[in-house]
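Discussion board: Methods & Data

I've been asked by a reviewer to show the raw model output for two of the constructs in my manuscript, not just the figures. I'm not sure how much to include, so I'm pasting the format here to get opinions. Each protein appears as its amino acid sequence followed by a line of C-alpha cells. Is this the kind of thing reviewers expect to see in a supplement, or should I convert it first? Here is construct A:
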Amino acid sequence: MRSLGAILKHPDDLYPLIKLKVAVMQAEKRIPPEPHWGFCYSMLHKVSRSFALVIQQLDTDLRDAICVFYLVLRALDTVEDDTNIATEVKVPILMAFHRHIYDREWHFACGTKDYKVLMDQFHHVSTAFLELGSSYQKVIEDITMRMGAGMAKFICKEVETTEDYDEYCHYVAGLVGLGLSNLFHASGKEDMASDSLSNSMGLFLQKVNIIRDYLEDINEIPKSRMFWPRQIWSKYVNKLEDLKYEENSDKAVQCLNDMVTNALMHAEDCLKYMSALRDPAIFKFCAIPQIMAIGTLALCYNNIEVFRGVVKMRRGLTAKVIDRTKSMSDVYGAFFDFSCMLKSKVDDNDPNAKKTKSRLEDILKICRDSGTLNKRKSYVLGSEPTFNPTMILIFVVMLAILLAYLSANRGNDM
C-alpha cells in the first residue's frame, strides 16, 4: 500500500518503475549457464539489483571482471563487517584475502543471509576470477590486497580525525574507484583517470553510506560499528551513540549537517571524473550511483529521521534516475536539482551553514557553467499529492498488463 500511495502521489514514477521491473527481469534471464558464472551473476542480483542491472549493459569481458571484482570486495567487506569474528581471526583473513581468490577450494563461514551464501560458496567466485584476463586479475588482486590491509589497520584503530575518516574511506571505497578506473583502462575503453579523482568517486559514495547507515551501525550487535570521526561528533555530544537519543535531537541534526558538508567536498571531483568518460555504458555505470548519492544527501540533510530509521530515495525516483541518466547533461541537471533541494534546507543558524552553502554554490556553478541545464528533466518534484483520475486509470491498466506479463512468464518457466 505504501508503494501504491507513492505512485498516486508521484504518478510519473509509474512508467520508469515498470521499465525498471521489466529490465531487471530481462537481466535475470541472461544469467550465464556455467555454474560458477551463474552463481556470480545470481549473487550479484541478490546483493544489489540496481548494480546488477547497470553492469549488464557493459561489454562481456569488462562486465565479467567488474562482477567478480564486486563480489570479491563484498566478500572482503563481509569479513570486516562481521562483529562476531574475533580480531585475532579476522585480521589474518583480511591480510591474506588477495591470495585466497586464487584458491578454488577456499571459503569461510561468516556473514548472514545472502552474504553467508557468498562466503560459503566463494569457490565459484575464485573459479570465475581465474578465467579472467591477466590484466584484470592483476588489478583485482592489487586492490584486494591494499583494501584488506587497510581494513585490518582500522580493526585496531578508531576513526578519530577527519584525516582518519578520509583514510578509512579510501581503503574501503576510494580503492574501489581506483580499481574500476584501472579495469576501464585495461578494457581499452577509457583513458586512465587520475588517482585523486578516482578516489573521490569512492569517497563520495562511502561517506553518503556512512551518514545514512548511522543507526544500523551504532545498533550493531554484539559491537557497534563507529565510522563517524570523533573530530566531528565530539563537538556535539560526549559519545557517538548519544546522537540517537531524542533529548539530543538538535545537536544530532547539527552533527549530521556537519557530516553532509564534509561529504560535499568530493562532488566537484566526481563531476570532473564523469565528464571525461567516453563509453556510454561505463558512463551510466558510474553516473547512476553518484546521482543517487547526491540525492540521498539532500534527503538526509537536516533530517532527524537519520537517527530514527532508514532514509532513502523512493523507488520511483530511483527508477527515474536509472531511466533518465544517459549523458553528462543529465548528471549536471540532477546534481543541480538535488543541490538546490539541499540548499533550501540550510538553516542560517546551523554552525556549518556558511561552509555548506559555499560548497553547494561551487557545485551549482559547475552545473550552470556546463550550459546544459535547459535540457534537463527536473529530479526535484513537488511534495503535494497529484491525484489525477486519468493517471490513476493509466496506472491500473498498466499494472494489470504487468501482472499479466509476469504471470505468463511464470507459466513459461514452469
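Construct B, same format:
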Amino acid sequence: MPAALGATHGSCATGIQEGSSIPGTGAADAGDRTSAAPSSPRALTVLLTVPTLDVGAADEGAIDLARVLAKAGHRPVVVSQGGRFEDEIARLGGVFVRLDTTSHNPIVIARNAQRLRRLVREHGCDAVHAHGRASAWSAWAAARASGKPFLTTCYTGFREQNRLKHWYNGVMARADRVIAVSEQIGDLMVERHRVPSSRLAVVHPGADLGGFDPGGITPDRIAAARSAWGVGPATRVVLFPGRIIRRRGHHVAVEAAARLKQNGLRDVLFVFAGEDGGTSSFSGELWDQVLASKTADVVRLTGPSPDAPASCAAATAIVSAAIQLEGLPRGLLEGMAMARPVIASDLAAGPEAVLAPPAVGEDRMTGLRYPAGDAGALAAALIRLFAYPEAARHAMGQRARAWVLSEFDPEDTAARILAIYADVCAGPAGVAAPPHTEGRAVEPQQR
C-alpha cells in the first residue's frame, strides 16, 4: 500500500473564492479519532461531490472523508445542494459550494460539469471524488476535461430495471478508482460493471463510535429511552435505526411483528427510530399497514432518537431489514458498538459485518442473518434470539462490540483512503480501463 499522504497547505492554500473556509481550523479536534499518516511533501486539494449534506450514507461518507482530508493537511472542496450539516465543512477547514447536484436532468448535469471544471481550475484541485450517481456524471465529465483523477465511492446497490438504468448507474464504475464500502458492494460492481481488481478497493466505513460505549450509559438514560417508547423494563425492544424508506424494509418488519403477535408472543415492541425526509409517501403507507395489520400496539414510529447510544442500550436487539443491497448501515454498527446482538437481512450487511451461523459457530456469533424480504424468516430469527438465555445474548453483544471496534476502525479507514489518493494522484489521470471491457471476480483477500 502506498504511503498515505499528510501535509500542511503550501501553494494549495490560496484561491478560496467560494463558500466559507478557514484552512486548518477544526482539523485536529481532540475528539476526532481519525489520525493522519506520515507526512508527504505535497498537500492535495480534492473536489468532492455529493447530492446533499443531510442524512444518508453518502452524506455521512462525504463529511467523514472531508474530515479525514482536512486532518491530514489536505483541503476538501465539497460541492452539494447542501443540508443541515453543510456548516461542518467550513468548520473542518474545507470549502462548501452550493450546486444542484441532485438533478437527473441532462441539461443540469451538463451545466454542472462546466461549473465543476471551473472549480477544479480555480481551486487547483488534484482529484475529483463523486458520491452519488447524478453528481458523478458531472464530476466524471469535469475530471476528464481537466485531466484529473476521478474516484467514486459506492454505498449501496442501485436497482437496474432496464438497460438505460444499468448505463446510468455505470458512471460509478468509470472511475480511476472505485471504492466500495463492503465486500458485497464490491462484488456487485464486479458482477454488473466488470470493474477489474486494479481499479477496485473495498474500504469499510470508519464510523467514529467513541460515544457508543456501554460503560458510559447511565441507568437514567436507558430508563428515559424506554419511557419515551412507553414501555417498562420487561418489554423486549427491537430497534430499527435509520431512515424510514422503502429499501430499508420496514414494511417487512411490520409483517414480522404481525406474525409474532398472531403467534402469541407478548412483551415485544418494534421501534422505527428514523426520519423519512419528506420525499416520499412511504411513511404514510407504512402506518396504513400498521393499522391494517392491527400492530399499532407493538410498533412505534418515533423519529430519530435524541440519545442514540441510550436507545441502543435500551434495546434487546438492533435490526436492519433492508430489501435492497446496502453497504454497512451505520445504525447497525452503532448497535454493535453498544454491545447489542444484531439481526440483519442478507442485503443489509454481509458476513464481514455480522458473524452468524452457519458461517460461524454459536460461540463466535454476533447476531443472525436472514433472507431479505422474508418476514417469516425475520420473525423466526427474533424468536431464536429471544430464546437464548440473557447470558448468551450478553456474550453475543460483547463479541459484536469487539468485532466492530477492531474491523471498522476510523484510523485504519483514514490510512486506506489517504493511500488511495497517494496512488491515484501520483500517476497520470484518465487512464482507467473502460467499464464493461475487462474484469473478473475479485476475491476479498485480493482487495
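Answer (T.O., handling editor elsewhere):
This is acceptable in a supplement if you add a one-line summary per construct. For B, something like: The longest strand covers residues 75-80.
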